[in-house]
């Protein structure tokens, strides 16, 4: 989702640093971009629709702010792209979030020239008025911030200072040898420094040549700046020898699993908390929600324990039974997903124990949580989650085994599945050949039962989000309740057939779709005559869905490439969904 970058640079290289910063956060998803820098007492703004061009050069300047926009209010146009300016181009502003009361705030503007359809532009003109009255940028920003409803981050500059303020949307700052920087994502600051200042909600920072000052955004009382020393490595556009990040990340999965297995004791404390909790609730969105659902099956099967699961955006409607003693675990790669942050806020108010299962140290969920369980998947840049799903499920497996008092067994199944994933990866060409055959399909259906049901949902999400082929995952048992009406001659149906208690029933489902003319693609240990195509994945016990999920990951990747699309940057999607 929208990315923000701003710098006051001591080497006069602010526009180029800003452009590079935007490249570092472009994986978040965007549809236009812009960079503003001061030239002859006025801001010069370069904006374009589409992706940032490679190797663009900029003039030199001391101060610059930039933005990658994911359209919410107003279409994808150059005029709507950020940065936006005041009437005289003396103040620029970039924004992440939605100003919910922008229509009523617009009425306060008299005599201003507005040129875009965005809510954002209102804010910079309101700041223009306040700045004229106060002559103090931080006061002007604070006054406008207090009026604005919604979850928003603003970065504003008058050419000599940058002021940033936030509620909801993430903002990080850093003080480096070449200047002071603010951004929406630590990865854009890491090339400059590892000392990061994570802004809390209602924090305001003022940056000038002397450095960074921190204030309460409402009272403007100064606060101590406390930097966090992070030991993360900067992840640039390093594809190694891979054509896309998604493929690289798929291939990293065995390594991720082995590292989790090696550090399995990390789950012990949280497993104990789960045992003591009044009830455990796993909350996530999209791919993470399917990992949460696997938790329900895994805890039942391995630990004989009931845990609950909710999609983040639905949690509000079922939260009434949360109380002190409940444990709410937010599962999120980015740690920033607003539909997971809100349940966490509700759970916090109700004094539940908060556990963050996230990939990003210092993220909003990480900072809100009482306890953290890191996914340790390494940075994931492709919009489609692959290794993060694997890590989420692996952590669920370890938690379930630890809760059952047999963590060693959890480690063993993870090690087995890492080996089996290697074997699946060795056969990637077979999956590519299948993608060549299926890429003209209008619909693909996926069936699973038990643990393979969330797997079927995840497989369908992978296919539709990057290849735009309609795909749906179903529980095999639902076929006769309506789904079977969709099956026509040659409809591709992927069927997950692990060697577990679901095997006979799911094979019966396969027979039913085959009888209606489906092209049945079987994934499992044993080939049977019902399959028109078979891809072997050896059973690894409770972790079998880990090697099996690699099949739809690779299939969706190759379908997308065959269709001439970019799997790393699917249309309309953002890596990190921080607005509602
Ligand atoms: C994954 O392929 C999706 N792009 C998406 O569903 C994602 O899993 C979801 O937005 C949640 O993100 P998070 O894990 O960062 O919270």
Secondary structure elements and their pairing?
Blueprint: E1 3-9, H1 14-25, E2 32-39, E3 42-49, E4 63-69, E5 84-85, E6 92-97, H2 102-106, H3 120-134, H4 137-147, E7 152-157, E8 162-167, E9 172-176, E10 179-183, H5 186-189, E11 195-198, E12 203-208, E13 211-216, E14 222-223, E15 228-229, H6 245-251, H7 253-262, H8 268-276, E16 279-284, H9 287-303, E17 308-311, E18 326-332, H10 338-349, E19 353-358, H11 364-368, E20 371-374, H12 387-403, H13 407-426, H14 428-438, E21 443-448, H15 452-467, E22 470-475, E23 492-497, H16 503-515, E24 519-524, E25 533-536, H17 545-562
Parallel strand pairs: 16-17, 16-18, 18-19, 19-20, 21-22, 21-23, 23-24, 24-25
Antiparallel strand pairs: 1-4, 1-10, 2-3, 2-4, 5-6, 6-7, 7-8, 8-12, 9-10, 9-11, 11-15, 12-13, 13-14
Helix pairs in contact: 3-4, 7-12, 7-13, 8-12, 9-12, 9-15, 12-13, 13-17, 14-17, 15-17
The site of 2-deoxy-2-amino glucitol-6-phosphate (AGP) has 16 residues, from helix 9.
| Strand arrangement, major sheet | 3-2-4-1-10-9-11-15
Q: In which range does the helix fraction lie?
A: 25-40%
Q: Give the number of DSSP strands.
A: 25
The fraction of residues assigned to DSSP E strands is: 15-25%
CATH homology superfamily name of the largest domain: Aminohydrolase, N-terminal nucleophile (Ntn) domain
What is the number of helices?
Answer: 17
Report the C-alpha radius of gyration, rounded. Answer: 25 Å
Q: How would you describe the shape?
A: globular
Distance between the termini: 11 Å
- The total number of structural domains is 3
Examine the secondary-structure arrangement and name the CATH architecture of the largest domain: 4-Layer Sandwich
CATH topology of the largest domain: Glutamine Phosphoribosylpyrophosphate, subunit 1, domain 1
Mean pLDDT metric: 94
Q: Are there runs of 5+ residues with pLDDT below 50, and where?
A: none
CATH class of the largest domain: Alpha Beta
Structural class call reads alpha/beta
- Identify every distinct bound molecule in the structure, by name, code or SMILES: 2-deoxy-2-amino glucitol-6-phosphate
Largest sheet properties: 8 strands, antiparallel
């Amino acid at each position: 989702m929208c990315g923000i970058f701003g710098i006051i640079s001591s080497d006069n290289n602010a526009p180029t640093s800003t452009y590079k910063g935007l490249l570092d956060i472009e994986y978040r998803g965007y549809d236009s971009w812009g960079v503003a820098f001061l030239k002859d007492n006025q801001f010069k703004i370069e904006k374009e629709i589409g992706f940032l061009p490679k190797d663009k050069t900029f003039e030199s300047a001391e101060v610059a702010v930039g933005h990658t926009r994911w359209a919410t209010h107003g279409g994808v146009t150059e005029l709507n792209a950020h940065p936006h300016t005041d009437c005289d181009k003396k103040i620029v502003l970039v924004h992440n979030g939605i100003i919910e009361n922008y229509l009523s705030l617009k009425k306060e503007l008299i005599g201003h020239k507005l040129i875009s359809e965005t809510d954002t532009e209102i804010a910079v003109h309101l700041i223009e008025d306040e700045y004229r009255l106060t002559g103090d940028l931080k006061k002007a920003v604070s006054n406008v911030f207090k009026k604005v409803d919604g979850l928003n981050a603003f970065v504003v500059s008058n050419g000599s200072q940058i002021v940033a303020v936030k509620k909801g949307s993430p903002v990080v700052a850093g003080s480096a040898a070449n200047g002071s920087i603010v951004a929406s994502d630590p990865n854009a600051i890491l090339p400059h420094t590892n000392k990061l200042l994570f802004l809390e909600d209602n924090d305001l920072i003022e940056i000038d040549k002397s450095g960074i000052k921190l204030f309460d955004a409402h009272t403007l009382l100064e606060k101590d700046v406390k930097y966090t020393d992070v030991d993360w490595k900067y992840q640039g556009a390093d594809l190694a020898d891979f054509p896309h990040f998604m493929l690289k990340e798929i291939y990293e999965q065995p390594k991720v699993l082995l590292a989790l297995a090696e550090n399995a004791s990390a789950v012990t404390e949280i497993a104990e908390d789960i045992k003591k909790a009044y009830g455990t609730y796993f909350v996530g969105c999209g791919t993470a929600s399917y990992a949460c659902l696997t938790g329900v099956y895994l805890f039942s099967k391995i630990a004989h324990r009931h845990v609950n699961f909710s999609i983040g955006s639905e949690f509000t409607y079922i939260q009434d039974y949360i109380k002190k003693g409940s444990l709410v675990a937010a599962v999120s790669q980015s740690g920033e997903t607003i539909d997971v942050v809100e349940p966490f806020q509700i759970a916090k108010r109700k004094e539940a124990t908060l556990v963050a299962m996230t990939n990003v140290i210092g993220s909003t969920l990480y900072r809100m949580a009482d306890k953290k369980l890191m996914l340790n998947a390494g940075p994931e840049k492709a919009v489609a989650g692959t290794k993060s799903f694997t890590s989420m499920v692996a952590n669920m497996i370890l938690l379930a085994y630890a809760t059952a008092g047999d963590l060693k067994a959890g480690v063993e199944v993870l090690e087995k599945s890492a080996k089996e994933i290697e074997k699946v990866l060795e056969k990637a060409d077979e999956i590519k050949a299948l993608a060549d055959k299926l890429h003209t399909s209008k619909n693909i259906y996926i069936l699973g039962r038990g643990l393979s049901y969330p797997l079927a949902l995840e497989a369908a999400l992978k296919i539709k989000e990057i290849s735009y082929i309609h795909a749906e995952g179903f529980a095999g048992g639902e076929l006769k309740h309506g789904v079977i009406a969709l099956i026509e001659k040659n409809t591709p149906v992927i069927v997950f057939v692990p060697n577990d208690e679901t095997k006979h029933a799911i094979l019966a489902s396969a027979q039913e779709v085959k009888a209606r003319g489906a092209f049945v693609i079987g994934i499992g240990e044993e080939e049977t005559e019902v399959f028109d195509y078979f891809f072997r994945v050896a059973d690894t016990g409770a972790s079998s869905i880990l090697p099996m999920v690699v099949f739809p990951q690779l299939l969706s990747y190759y379908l997308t490439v065959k269709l001439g699309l970019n799997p790393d940057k699917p249309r309309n999607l953002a890596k990190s969904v921080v607005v509602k």
